[in-house]
Write a structure and sequence with these properties.
289 residues, mainly alpha, globular
Length: 289
């Protein structure tokens, strides 16, 4: 082992790569098949999303979290003015212009994370959609550009797929989010199925809860189908990484359905090997599961 003083600091590129690998996210499996420059861009962008997301998830004091997000807003503005300081921005900025990653995209992601500090419930699906637009639709839009979008219609596909991903996450994380005091399921839909917030907080399963979750899952499935229908043929090949992620996420959704929505006391996952296999099938065979 080298002495502490002799260890070499990580480069920004190593930092973002490590962030992407450590997350174990489905994003990572989609990166693997990209050419190196696009892989570098998506890793840097993904690491940025992780950094700001972690502020909300890992900082228990809302005041401290707000201060950190304000720091990120200033850092993004400085980076686009030619003065990045954080490793993530140092890795991202040389690639931003090549892939059409604009300051408004990054600021929108921060705005979405800020919503998590200010809002823990959504009255209806329209309100939830506004949140998903920032934390998932914009992410999909940037990812589509990095993957090699050529048709402007692909942006609508990316936003729709991003919404499907976010709804899948919300279904998977109902129990975990409730422990953090957040219930993303719209209040109007809880009422529609007569599910009380305290039942979710106490991890109480019921036929009403299962019916509510089935309703959520059916909407997510409709959005996956809608997204695939929106993807222009000209961009189908370039957008393969997004389709890999869709294959992984939709398989996860089916797994949750198969487990009868037992999401209050656990997080249902796919193994890394299964995620890799689902990604590889799209890459090699052009086939969704």
């Amino acid at each position: 082992m080298s002495a502490m003083g002799q260890s070499r600091p990580m480069t920004p590129q190593q930092y973002v790569q490590q962030k992407a690998v450590a997350s174990g996210s489905s994003f990572y499996y989609a990166f693997l098949f990209l050419p190196a420059p696009r892989r570098a861009a998506i890793a840097a962008f993904y690491a940025f999303c992780r950094e700001v997301d972690d502020v909300v998830d890992e900082v228990s004091d809302p005041g401290v979290a707000r201060t950190k997000l304000a720091w990120w807003q200033a850092e993004v503005a400085k980076a686009y003015a030619g003065q990045p300081t954080h490793p993530v921005m140092l890795a991202l900025m040389p690639l931003a212009a090549d892939y059409g990653i604009e300051q408004r995209h990054l600021q929108a992601v921060i705005d979405g994370c800020q919503m998590d500090l200010e809002q823990t419930r959504y009255l209806d699906f329209a309100g939830l959609k506004g949140y998903c637009h920032l934390v998932a639709g914009i992410v999909g839009e940037v990812a589509a550009r990095i993957f090699g979008q050529t048709d402007p219609r692909t942006t609508e596909y990316a936003h729709t797929l991003g919404l499907a991903f976010q709804l899948t996450n919300i279904i998977r994380d109902v129990g975990e989010d409730a422990m953090l005091g957040r219930i993303y399921l719209p209040v109007s839909e809880l009422q529609q199925f007569d599910v009380k917030a305290h039942e979710i907080l106490k991890r109480q399963y019921s036929d009403r809860f299962t019916a509510l979750m089935r309703f959520q899952a059916e909407r997510a499935h409709r959005l996956y189908d809608e997204a695939f229908a929106l993807l222009p043929d000209a961009d189908r090949r370039a957008q393969k990484p997004g389709l890999m992620m869709a294959n992984i996420y939709r398989t996860l959704l089916r797994e949750i359905e198969h487990e009868n929505f037992q999401v209050l006391h656990q997080r249902i996952r796919l193994t890394p090997l299964r995620k890799f296999w689902l990604a590889w099938k799209v890459q090699a065979l052009g086939r969704m599961s």
